[in-house]
Amino acid sequence: MAGEKFRFSSDEYLNFKLIGMRSDEKGFRLAWLLNKTLLWDLELSHEVEVTQKNNVSKHDVFAIKGEENELQIHLIANRSLQGMLLPEYHQMDYFLKIEHSSEGYIPELIAELRKLEEITGAFEIQTEGLKNIERFIFD
């Protein structure tokens, strides 16, 4: 319905961590670099479509999908030719969505990301109160 806000009735879909990254690399190149450096297997999965002010922007999503309740990682482009996934984080080029991570994994991952010269910044983003969190809910 027009004007209605999307609300979640369960925290089940919001149980993930988010890392914002700055990098001038293209998505495929960054996915390759992360695969090589962190021994991941990110592959292009799909696009997220976002409608903002009569404009639709499409954002590439690279994914490693494990079995249910296993570590799952998505690399998501914040920028596209048509707009941004999260305009409130305009300084970020990419996001890593991490599901089912162990305690301490996120700080260790951020430290590893910051060692890469192609990544000029990596920061954990608090998902509580994030304005457009529904844009990270996909399968």
Tell me about this structure:
It is a single chain. The protein is of the alpha+beta class. It has a single domain (11-136), classed as TATA-Binding Protein. The protein has 2 helices and 8 strands. It has helices at 27-38, 105-115; strands at residues 16-22, 43-52, 55-64, 72-77, 79-80, 83-84, 94-99, 121-125.
In N-to-C order, the SSE pattern is EHEEEEEEHE
Walk across the major sheet and give the strand order. 2-3-4-7-1-8
Q: Roughly what percent helix? A: 10-25%
> Strand share of the residues?
25-35%
Helix-strand category: alpha+beta
Indicate the overall shape: globular
Strand segment tally: 8
Gross CATH architecture: 2-Layer Sandwich
How far is it from the N-terminal to the C-terminal residue, by CA? 24 Å
- Low-confidence parts lasting 5 or more residues at pLDDT below 50? 1-10
CATH class: Alpha Beta
CA gyration radius, whole angstroms: 15 Å
Biggest β-sheet, characterized?
Answer: 6 strands, antiparallel
Mean pLDDT: 86
What is the CATH topology classification name? Answer: TATA-Binding Protein
> How many structural units, i.e. domains?
1
* Count, helices: 2
Task: Show the helix and strand layout.
Elements: E1 16-22, H1 27-38, E2 43-52, E3 55-64, E4 72-77, E5 79-80, E6 83-84, E7 94-99, H2 105-115, E8 121-125
Antiparallel strand pairs: 1-7, 1-8, 2-3, 3-4, 4-7, 5-6
